[in-house]
Amino acid sequence: TNLARMLEHGKLGGTGKMLILPVDQGFEHGPARSFGPNPPAYDPHYHFELALAAGCNAYAAPLGFLEAGARDYAGRIPLILKLNDHDLLADEEDPEQAITGSVADALRLGACAIGFTIYPGSAHRNAMYGQIREIAEEAKSVGLAVVIWSYARGSALSKEGETAIDVIGYAAQIAAQLGAHIVKVKLPSAHIEQPAARKVYESTGIPIGTAAERVRHVVQCAFNGRRIVIFSGGAHAEEATFLDEIRAIQAGGGFGSIVGRNAFQRSKADALSLLGKITDIYAGR
Ligand code: FBP
Q1: What's this model's pTM, rounded to 2 decimal places?
Q2: Pocket around ligand 1 at a 6 A CB cut-off
Q3: To the nearest whole number, what is the mean pLDDT of the chain?
Q4: Which atom of ligand 1 is nearest to the CA of 184?
């Protein structure tokens, strides 16, 4: 029911596609880097208003931001409570996340889902897999949907490897196997990181030449479309470039996008215009 609430809400409601506003960057990247380009975004209420005005399916944020808007916005938009977070204050080759909220918090805030980041490729990945296994069991037992941010990074991977097609496909599979209803990954490049995988991609001719083909392959890796795969927006980009990525996700059978910086780092008018264009692409208009 909670998954349906998200799929039915907003301007994409009923299309099977999703557009989610995630605002955990204040924690993940720091407040000035995140909100400095558009200072009204320091205010947690700004993001609720933006998600509502854009007609997003859901708004995802850590505990503090959701609590700061709970009184004014409760029940107006499906919420995803991010239950773990990572900061950039210490330089580390193998990142891990701190648990920053609970399933009880998600219920208290009326959220539809919990969100959790894993870092396949980090030396700490197995601890994160164990944490989400336990948390997902608890979340599902009370009817909450599970959204996994599956971000490959860590000393096992090159920088290029973090978005390599084999690695993103693998990250999507791991999140699906960990029980995610919604899997969130980065848009993959044509790079292949692992030699063993390269052999298979080359010998079987898996089509990965275009961005749309790579999206299709990642969806295939997450149970052939039986799990919802959405793609992250990434750092602030030119509108034309960004919309080309959205068209590739749509053409490749992706389920939508989770767009943070490309939304709240623009003025509200520009963000609403961009999110409107994204919505039109996913709605097939
Ligand atoms: P963006 O659209 O801003 O990329 O947001 C998506 C997101 O997953 C955020 O939830 C998260 O804070 C951020 O990306 C992580 O990005 P990075 O790769 O820089 O850690």
Answers
A1: 0.97
A2: 22, 24-25, 28, 149, 232-234, 258-262
A3: 98
A4: 8
> Cα separations (Å) of 37 from 57, 61, 126, 253?
25, 19, 36, 33
0.90 surpassed by complex ipTM? yes
- Cα 79 to the chain's mean position, in Å? 13
Identify which of 107, 119, 228, 212 has the alpha carbon closest to the alpha carbon of residue 174: 119
Computed from CA positions of residues 283, 273, 181, 229, in that sequence, does the dihedral angle turn out positive or negative?
positive
Q: How far is the CA of 232 from the centre of ligand 1 (A)?
A: 7
Q: Within the chain, which residues score under 70 in pLDDT? A: none
Q: How far apart are CA 158 and CA 57, in angstroms?
A: 34
Report the alpha-carbon angle 165-170-175, nearest 5: 130
Q: How many of the other CB atoms lie within 10 Å of CB of 75? A: 8
Nearest CA to ligand 1 atom 18: 234
For residue 202, report the distance from its CA to the centre of ligand 1, in Å: 31
Distance between terminal CA atoms of the chain? Answer: 28
Return the residue matching tokens 């791991």: 174
> Which pLDDT value is given to residue 91?
86
Q: The tokens 């700490």 sit on which residue?
A: 124
CA distance 223 to 118: 18
The residue whose CA has the least distance to atom 7 of ligand 1 is 232
